[in-house]
Amino acid sequence: MAKLAWRNLTQQPLRFAISAGGVALAVVLILAMSGVFAGSEEHAVLYMRNQPAELWGMQAGVSNLHMSSSILSEETVQQIQQFPGVEQAIGVLYASAGVDVGETEIYSYVIGIDPNAPYGGPWSLVEGNGSPGLNEIAIDRDLAYRYGLTLGDTVSILGYPLTITGLSEGTFGIATNVVFVNKTAMALLMDVSPQSASYVLIEPKTDTNVNSLENALNSTIRDANIMSRANFIGSDQEMIRQMGADILQMMNVIAYIIGLLIIGITVYTATLERAREFGVLKAIGANTRQLVSTVFIQSYLIAGIGFSAGIGLAYLVSILVARLSPEILILIEPRQWLSQLPVLVIVTGVASLLPVQRIRSIDPLIVFKA
Asked: Is residue 236, in this structure, part of any structural domain at all?
């Protein structure tokens, strides 16, 4: 039966290739869409992931960096810095604003950093200075390349001109553009103390239990919420995931319907074209179960080959997109396509049911008809 199924498909290789290609494109659609959202999640947390702070302090009631507003007073920041078990605590200011490049406004996450702080700023500096002065800014290299900017050029935020003195890497994404400015200048703009902070990056002492320190800080400093880096990152990723869940689900449903129709139509057509052959098989003793199994084998051959090709194409698409548009990260991991296997098995099984009734009703006498 397996040989018969393979022969039925390969007798018309072009149709077979088109059918498998259709399934492959459906798989690419699924993986590419989920990869874009996974890449957006990763872009959104690169700042937290690449800072050495194991604990993050923020305003009580806040648990995200993106789409959030947080401010800790100067006194609260000092409490954290002087807390037993804290080796170092660096405060940064944070706000979302548009970076104006000519007539174009680029929605950005603006981080105000202390030029003398050991961390909190760009983690990968490509060119220039990553510690901006009062009227200076550090932006991403890919952002600069896209808009033809170089060191010494001027952009503005809320009408205030800033000179580009540093180019970073890994801070420009499809939905996340991070720029770095001087903390004192940003404090004046926000009308807060330069010693206050939106977030405090906390580095525990080497002999301190991080979980115990987190609990102690939360118990003592009621105006702040202290989170581990892992929980902070997970909270941001979950928020982004919820924002894109409906779109991703809709695209997956569309892709599954496409795959279902392609497999079903292909197998049904192949069955109709081979009706006489199935009639011969019935005439020489093949039972309905054997003939139906041939149909299912054909379906799973199409789906399996198309699925494998789709995975390869999805990885190729992610590489090409990264080269053409560095701000778009399509992150494809094995767990993403492995999770699609059970659904593919079900979809293929459903598609295989379309020609089953036709197989069961084939009359062996068809072989004697002209």
From this structure: no
